[in-house]
Amino acid sequence: MMKKFIGLLTALMLMFAAISFISPDSAEAKGYKSGRKSYSPTQNETVVQKKDSTVNSSKLQQDSKAPVTAKKSGGFLKGMLLGGIGGLLLGSLFAGLGPIGAILAFFVNMMLLAGIVMIGVKLFKYWKKKKRQQEMEAWRR
Fold this sequence. Notes:
Blueprint: H1 2-22, E1 45-49, E2 56-60, H2 76-91, H3 99-140
Antiparallel strand pairs: 1-2
């Protein structure tokens, strides 16, 4: 029974893999229309409303001390590199133990993932609690 199920599953996967090579030819981008565009002034611009007109006009103020934003560090390749190095280090931690090593490495990876999720949940709860307390303090005044 299991062999039949695996054979059926393999046949379905091969069929869908073959279909996936055919479908990109039928993609068309002619019908795409972008959404409604809106404009919001940046920090260095002010919106001036004329008294005799209903149209807003933007006026750019030249500020010699405009804040310079730093370039974002990192990116996709850096994340892949660090993730690959971490995976190699944790994956080879129990490499000499045979089949039980793979199970132990999986357990360590799951514990790390659970720890990251728990830290994220704790930070989220702390942030929400702090925000709630600030709102309550605002109402007490």
